[in-house]
């Protein structure tokens, strides 16, 4: 009978184990939640000094941030209403004073008493002039502004938009990363992607596709010219470069040309976005396809803003001092904002170790410091006037 006698398996020997024991966590301090812990007992002797210490630490931090922001000079000029002015010509420029609520000077600390000449602007309309072939600059705004003091380098040139919601969910997603990197993406694939409804036009792929690229800010800015230079009778330019205005890693997201190297075969397979037609009236050719890898204005625009009011860097000058005087900048008017009740402005600013002009963070630290100290003072007064014995059992609700 030994032939039919089975050998006991491990499962038979486990019957003595408690049912479900294989799911029991290991008997360690971590898995059995027996780790050592420390819970502070909040008493007046510990809480009140802590509040005072935090308040005394926040106050100098806030003051330092406010001082850093005070080192910055920022000038903002809103030219939204410029196109509503009576048109003039180059021969007879007629300037109008910019309303006081359309510009602001936030000067470096210690220069608040400097005399400032109000800015002016004029509207130049060459759209009816058949000999004027530059379609991007047929309608121009000439802004004349005063720089009351020398601005040391670096000086930055921004454009500012309000009421423009780049943070809308469909807008943020409206691009195709593969196409921007130079890969071939068929028109049908673009129509079924996040680029819809600007994936293709007439069966031809839109490059670059999507709402973000189509709404690219396309006002143009000429070099500001110093009108009253002391060492020259001619206006002197203050040149801003468009290199180094985007994050260094942004260029990796784009390709120099989408033609070849696994991309589209020729320029006839792609078409500009609808709002780019003024720039490319005859569509793309082999010679005029935009180099998005080096176009830092485009890269900044594609990096969407989180709030409806934002500024984007357009140019910078890291080498020259912007001398005090009267400057003129010519702006080509192409980007509409009045239809959605927005505004557009130019911003000229310096920077400090804290960045741009933004005293809010410093005042927030000061306000927090004042709040902590106030609470500490009130708590100290309460503790001195009507102290409470620690661990008084008579204060428990069931003993009252």
Structure keywords:
alpha+beta; 400 residues; seven-stranded antiparallel β-sheet; 20% helix; 18% strand; five-stranded antiparallel β-sheet
Task: Explain what the structure shows.
InterPro entries: CDC50/LEM3_fam (IPR005045). Belongs to the CDC50/LEM3 family. Pfam families: CDC50. The chain crosses the membrane at residues 46-67, 360-381. The chain is an alpha+beta fold and 400 residues long. It has helices at 10-13, 44-70, 169-173, 177-180, 187-191, 211-214, 296-302, 360-385; strands at 74-78, 96-97, 103-106, 120-125, 139-147, 155-162, 200-201, 204-206, 220-221, 225-226, 236-237, 270-271, 310-317, 325-332, 343-350. A hairpin with a 2-residue loop joins strand 7 and strand 8. Helix 2 (44-70) packs antiparallel against helix 8 (360-385). The longest helix is centred in the first third of the chain and has 27 residues, at 44-70. The termini are far apart. The model has no long low-confidence stretch (mean pLDDT 90).
Could you tell me the number of beta strands? 15
How would you state the average pLDDT, rounded?
90
Q: What's the total helix number?
A: 8
In terms of DSSP E residues, the strand content is 15-25%
Rounded Rg: 33 Å
Helix and strand pattern: HHEEEEEEHHHEEHEEEEHEEEH
- Name the poorly predicted regions: none
Helix content: 10-25%
Structural category is alpha+beta
Biggest sheet overview: 7 strands, antiparallel
Measured between the Cα atoms of the first and last residue, the distance is 81 Å
Apparent shape: flat
